[in-house]
Each structure stands twice: as C-alpha cells, then as structure tokens.
Amino acid sequence: MGDWTNATPTSTTAGILRPEELAQRTTLERYAAGPGLQRWVENYWVLGWDLPPGTAHASQVLPHPACTLSVERGNPRPETQGQPVVLTGVVTRRFDVALTGQAWVLGVKFRPGGLASLTGQSARPWRDAVLPARAAVPDRVIDRLEQVGPDLAGKECVALAEDALASLVAPDHPNDDRYDRLLTVLDDMLTDRSIVQVTQLEDRHALSSRGLQRLFHHYVGVGPKWVLARYRMHDAVSALDGGWTGSLTDLAHAHGWYDQAHFIRDFTALVGVPPSQYRSRRV
Description:
By secondary structure, the protein is α+β, with helices and mostly antiparallel strands. It folds into two domains: about 20-165, no CATH class; about 175-280, Arc Repressor Mutant, subunit A. Helix content is about 40%, strand content about 20%. It contains eleven helices and eight strands. The longest helix has 18 residues, at about 225-240. The chain is globular. Pfam families: DUF6597, HTH_18. This is AraC family transcriptional regulator.
C-alpha cells in the first residue's frame, strides 16, 4: 500500500462559489484524516451558522467527484427522513442549499471512490442522490456518528468519526488494487494540467476506453470525462475568485477549452451565469 497522504490533493475551497461570502456568514474548520484512513478519506469539515430570523444565505457549490457523509443538526432536509447522518453521492449539477436559522454540520469528504472501496458497493446508484446513510453504511458506523454534535469540540467530533470509520478497515481488509489504480489516474488529472482529454489518460495508464469507464462508474459514480471537466471548471472558477485579470479567452485556453464560446456555454450551464457576470459579481 502506498503513501496516500496527498493522493488526491483537492483539500481546498475549490468548488465553493464566492467563498468569501460564505466565510462572512459561517464558521468552517477543516481537519486532515488520520493515517489509518487517509487512503479513503480526504478530510473532515465542521460548518456552523447562526443567522438572524428572516435572513438566509444561498450556499452554492460545484461539488467534487466524491461522496460525503454528514451529520446534520438543524435545518433537516426532506430527503433524509429525519435521520441526522446523510450520504450525498457525486452531484453532477450545482449544489444549492439555503442556510437559515441555526445549524451545524460535520462532513466526511471521501476521496473519489473512497466510500465505494470501503463499503464494497458501487457508487453509481448514489449519483445525484441525498439519502439516509443507513441505506449504504453499516449501522455500527451510523450509531457512532450519531453521537457527534455542536456540543462537542470539532476535534472531538473528528475523533469519533475516525473511530466509527475505522471499524470498516478490518486487519484483513483486502487490498483494493483497482481503487489504487483509480487514485493514480486521479492524481494525474489533478497534478498535470496539460491533461485535457480522456484519451491522454488511457494512453498513459494503458487502459482501454471501456476499462477506464467501468473503473470510474463503479468507484466514483460518473465517467472520467465528467470528472476531468469538473476539475478544470474548478480551476477556472478558482482563478476568477482569485482575481483573474486576463481575458476570458486566455482563461478558457489555460484550462483546456479550445474556444471561448464553448467555455462560456459550459460555465453558464453549471454555474448559472456567464463567467463575465460571475467575475463582476452582478448576480
């Protein structure tokens, strides 16, 4: 087994639209996964907010190609059937949540494919799904996660979550070579920005088109072309949030789009406004 400390280096705010606005209305803490779970878990986060009555904040995220387990206290979502531990699969569209009142969330962000590898299940049925986590995760894990809440410090909550998830990693847990291969492909996507076509990955990793598709659909829940496009869109949005001053044509070319028109169509379809409007914050 390799050292997965930085296997998928996506532990950033990439994907959060207008992160500075979210920071003004919430508190957010991130924690690294412990060494026993780094192969599957990317990080933990604790988000809390307490908004005055009658006010709301529209949180908008372009999610990563990863599943999340969350413990949610306050503002229950109808899909969760009142259960506090929630599984959110890979979301292929912009993910919008209205933050109101007072609430608290502990999130476990898995590496792409991590939850599927830990549970031995396919991630494909979880795509675009929000459901009670008991539908996919053993009760012993859920029972432990239900012990966390805002009355505990963030580090205590993370320690409890680590203990709960560690029960899935038995001493005789089989080495999942296919998952290791997936992580290697993902690492290339994230560290080599010159990769803008799936065929480049097929050639580099000696995988057929069908083989690569099956690998991604089982572990991640979506195909490799979608994942690559989402990472490049994260890069483009992060550049705009960081104060990009160049032309949109240069931005498009820098992140794999061959023409500005195609980039604008993709950006608008996902983010909801054209990149020029997003940059000027006129929404």
